[in-house]
From TrEMBL:
Superkingdom, taxonomy of origin: Bacteria
GO MF, one example: lyase activity
GO BP terms in the entry: sodium ion transport
Main location: membrane
Protein name per UniProt: Sodium ion-translocating decarboxylase subunit beta
Organism, as annotated: Megamonas hypermegale
Keywords: Cell membrane, Membrane, Translocase, Transmembrane, Transmembrane helix
Membrane topology, record value: Multi-pass membrane protein
One annotated Gene Ontology cellular component of this protein: plasma membrane
Residues spanning the membrane: 20-39, 46-65
Pfam assignment, any one: OAD_beta
Compartment(s) of residence: Cell membrane
């Protein structure tokens, strides 16, 4: 049983969910709502779908999306 808990804790820390904060959660929800409006309701799908998809992808934790900016600036 202890090995299972250690494995579960390892998955929790290695997956990135441990560093997920409230701002990321809110922006993922906003992105999913925009994606629903674009695909489900048909409100400006050519504009909203890429914005919503980028909003969802940019807010996943530990993906390294923000690390490329420092290489481009420096």
């Amino acid at each position: 049983m202890e090995a299972f808990l250690v494995a579960l804790q390892s998955v929790w820390y290695d997956s990135g969910y441990s560093v997920l904060n409230m701002g990321n959660i809110i922006m993922i929800i906003v992105g999913l709502v925009l994606l629903y409006l674009a695909i489900g309701r048909g409100y400006e799908p050519l504009l909203l779908a890429p914005i919503a998809f980028g909003c969802v992808l940019a807010n996943f934790p530990n993906t390294g999306v923000d690390e490329g900016l420092m290489w481009a600036i420096g």
